[in-house]
Amino acid sequence: MKKMLSAVLLSGAVLSMAALAAKPAAITTALSDTARPADDVKRDGDRKPAEMLEFSKIKPGAKVMDLVPGGGYFTRIFAKAVGPEGWVYAYQPSELDSFSKGKSPKILAVAKEYPNVSVIHAPINDLSAPEALDVVFTAQNYHDMKDDFFKPADTDKVNKAVFKALKPGGLYIVIDHAAEKGSGLRDTNTLHRIDEAAVKQEITAAGFEFAGESKVLRNTKDPKTANVFDPSIRGKTDQFVYKFRKPLKAK
User: Fold this and answer.
1) d(CA 152, CA 216)
2) Is residue 251 part of a domain?
3) Which string of b and e fits 209-241 if b means at least 16 CB within 10 Å?
4) Which of 45, 66, 147, 202 is the most buried (most CB within 10 A)?
5) Could you read off the pLDDT of 140-161 as tens digits, one per residue?
6) What CATH code is carried by the domain that includes residue 35?
7) Residue-range definition of the domain harbouring residue 195
8) pTM exceeding 0.70
């Protein structure tokens, strides 16, 4: 029995390595980065970083903003994926200072480890970028702009600022925990979820085109009635992964 289990585990590891090897070099380099903390690597199975990089079109030389980077899970990955010719701006909203529980120092430490990462520490409503960006990426944060973390965040203003910061054709990637359909903003402060239709409506109203969805983080078994931090669902919530594009003719 032990031999059979070992064989299964070995087979799974070999398949994972083979799958990673089949990815573009920038992705394999990013995920093989030995500087990544062990706790980050453990989360890869739930967060699907290789698929996120592919979906976001983050490539060597790209200029990327990691909007609300937390402890820098994606910041580290982006830094390696864009390489020395690219740049990553970790936008850490100052509204989170009282809630961050040490994460602001963490992202500053990440910036010291990666020479192509810089931290922007400013109010969320003052969002801007030092140069035109290829991608703005935010994971599991959009709902927070509607709750007590960011009051008085103005998502209309934030989305317009993201639009302005991107190059024509640039991408805005939004990942978040899905709420029940039709619930709007009802659950943002209680369950930390948001109705994906509300997100799509707000972002397209800022001038973006909806450019597609990845379903790799979907979980149809999530009843969407539990707080995302509930042990019964944490790390396994139904998440939407949306891609929005700034039109090529936009200024």
Assistant:
1) 32
2) no
3) eeeeebeebeeeebebeeebeeeebeeebbbbb
4) 66
5) 999 999 988 777 789 999 999 9
6) 3.40.50.150
7) 25-245
8) yes
